[in-house]
Amino acid sequence: MANTKSALKRAQIADRNRLRNKAYKSAVKTLMKKYFTAVETYAADPSPELKQEALARMSEAYSKIDRAIKRGALHPNNGARKKSKLAQRLKAHTQPAATAQ
């Protein structure tokens, strides 16, 4: 338990920030899972509508990741890595397979 008023306030602020960061991180994970599900659906049955759905989910995830970085819940490199993983997953299903020579 904090012994001074300032230490008590810092503990309260730390708890508040921890809960806010937890909410951002949880939302990012949820949106990434929704995106991966949309990509798998598109991979099983490629159609323009399903691709648009996947792109819309990717846009939502990118937005939430950027917001989490801006608020300090995620480190910029961590956010960049997550966004790269999202783009890589869709690219694997949209690019034609490379031919070996």
What does this 3D model show about the protein?
With 101 residues, this protein is mostly helical. The chain is 82% helix and 0% strand. The protein contains 3 helices and no strands. It has helices at 5-44, 48-71, 76-94. Helix 1 runs antiparallel to helix 2, helix 1 (5-44) runs parallel beside helix 3 and helix 2 (48-71) packs antiparallel against helix 3 (76-94).
Essential attributes:
82% helix, 3 helices, elongated, 101 residues, mainly alpha
The gross shape turns out to be: elongated
Q: What's the helix-strand series?
A: HHH
Q: Uncertain segments of ≥5 residues (pLDDT<50)? A: none
Largest sheet: none
The percentage helix is over 70%
Instruction: Give me the secondary-structure category.
Output: mainly alpha
Brief description of this entry?
The chain has helices at residues 5-44, 48-71, 76-94. It is an all-alpha fold and 101 residues long. The longest helix is centred in the N-terminal third of the chain and has 40 residues, at 5-44.
What is the topological layout?
Elements: H1 5-44, H2 48-71, H3 76-94
